[in-house]
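agent: user wants the full assembly modeled, not chains individually. Plan: 1) parse entity lines 2) check alphabet per entity 3) run joint structure prediction 4) return tokens. Steps 1-2 passed, two entities, 744 residues total. Proceeding.
--- entities ---
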Amino acid sequence: MTEFRFELHNTDGEARLGTLHTAHGTVQTPAFMPVGTAATVKAMSPADVRATGAEIILANTYHLMLRPTAERIARLGGLHAFMGWSRPILTDSGGYQVLSLSALRRIDEDGVTFRSHIDGSEHRLTPERAVDIQRLLGSDITMVLDECPAFGVPADEAAASMRRSLRWAERCRKAFEARPGHGLFGIVQGGVYADLRSESAAALCSIGFEGYAIGGLAVGETPAMMLSVAEATAAQLPTDQPRYLMGVGKPDQVVAAVLRGIDMFDCVLPTRSGRTGQAFTRAGTLNMRNARHVDDTQPLDAACRCPACSNFTRAYISHLTRSGEILGAMLLTGHNITFYQDVMAELRAVIASGNARPWADQFFARYGEGSG
Amino acid sequence: MTEFRFELHNTDGEARLGTLHTAHGTVQTPAFMPVGTAATVKAMSPADVRATGAEIILANTYHLMLRPTAERIARLGGLHAFMGWSRPILTDSGGYQVLSLSALRRIDEDGVTFRSHIDGSEHRLTPERAVDIQRLLGSDITMVLDECPAFGVPADEAAASMRRSLRWAERCRKAFEARPGHGLFGIVQGGVYADLRSESAAALCSIGFEGYAIGGLAVGETPAMMLSVAEATAAQLPTDQPRYLMGVGKPDQVVAAVLRGIDMFDCVLPTRSGRTGQAFTRAGTLNMRNARHVDDTQPLDAACRCPACSNFTRAYISHLTRSGEILGAMLLTGHNITFYQDVMAELRAVIASGNARPWADQFFARYGEGSG
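--- prediction returned ---
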């Protein structure tokens, strides 16, 4: 039986090189998790996702509890079997999506009641139910139910919300059934207020989790503020456990956050951008709808190993994008996820060799640092 | 240099086993050509298409002349290089699509003027221009520009239209530049009128083409009438050249037409159905939106070798379809094209062994014969 644990191999400044051990295998960190909202990383097969180098994906409790339901997935053998992904899966708690449905939800001390965006049916999510759904899904990493307040709420509101999230985190910890190789992560909240973030981090550490996420960022604050809060928060988390910056982000933001001690990331950017015609490359981003690509016989990125770059020109991908063809979404999504995985692999290599800072400086020269 | 030629290996009743030799390789017949309208078989990579067993695809002149334009594709090295498909390509002449734009086109003796469905710009297609576009694309098989009248037009209208198509066919023959491995196909018209079909077939044979298509069917007549016209027409075409039934069809219609002497087919059905949640299987068709699949752990078709059937359950594919996920379209399209290719491979095997009729009878028992 695999124990759920984090091995820290090496540090370079604040940047960390590690391995996460889970019931479904290991994850080298820093790691970027492609988002597989509805039990599919959009426009890619699980084999395509694996070929990018991704070792772990994220799936969304909110979407899956509504369709096909957690109970159905459990009957069908769990999320790994259902979607054909045999490696680690992290699931969020559903809180972020539910609380984004501002017109459709009602929050109270016990939990949150909301209406489905699919059929308007009423549902209830409590800390206990969020943990149970993730158990039914079979997630390797379960996230606590938390409240993520909007950017710009005053300190007293942010404090009240963060303290309720702490009470929910305690209930999640109690509800979480220990299983070998499975872990529960707490989520630090507190908005952009340093004292609230410290209070949240300390309280979560005293409850004790298998990892710690930094939530409530990338919701409207500047990238510089996001990085500053992430850095200060990371410094207050245990060194021997993984740190996950939720919902971040652009390539330069991910690199900057790794330099500040973050181990895990997720973001819809590479997948969503792939469906809207944006390509991330070593020379910066390309908008494939732009007319300048229509006669360009270069690949998206000559240094990239993905199927799009091995087989097709910018001219063809531009044609597919402009024509709204599914193959365009398939190729660009695969390319973007490969790009993110290659950035993570390069980061791991330069952390191992103690060259993270100069490598990152070169990266920022192309991508900006902490861009908006 | 490959000569464009058709080798007839064997017959079984009217069914024929052959090989078509083209500049981009050989095609075993009977063959089903997946439709790659805009230089992509929707929701599949060229490698995915090849893995189904497909040896030739069809692309549409109308779509490509508008976007990205034939001239641009020629500058980029031709359609094979542009889309990354190195095997044979047949292109239609654009006539069928243009003439479907009933409100947007004006036909005269010289050709047809029409407005683009993309941006409303005015374009002109003549027999010479249709051949030139297909030369720019680099098609292995060029189709003559023809007029495909709507089903139900009176005999005098059908006759006038068919005779104009013959004059256009002659102009195409003159305009077609002989190149090794490239062929020009004539298209028999004449609606459902036997005498007109005979006149068209005889006139085309006297002009002389590298193959003969039967056009103007699958436009509203009953399947029985379609098969009857196809059979009678096929009987009037040279035995040593390929016969192509355009736009057909459902699996049983393809099988029935092979028994009547047809060698080549194209149809959007397997690809379009894949995007709307329909799966063709050895046991009949499945609508993956149907609630009865949501807990079904079987593959779509246990005897199928495609990625969908090797890796996923009906329950998962049903979830993808109901959720509008691109992976659902990818898996079902790949499955449906594989199904069609497997039907063709089985047909070739049973023609070789002289068992086409009993095999087809078993097939019709599951699929109906000449279904509507």
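agent: reporting back. The interface with chain B takes residues 38-40, 42-47, 67-68, 72, 75-77, 82-84, 275, 294-295, 297, 307, 311-313, 315-316, 319-320, 322-323, 325-327, 329-331 of chain A (CB under 8 Å). Residues 308 and 331 of chain A are 5 Å apart (CA to CA).
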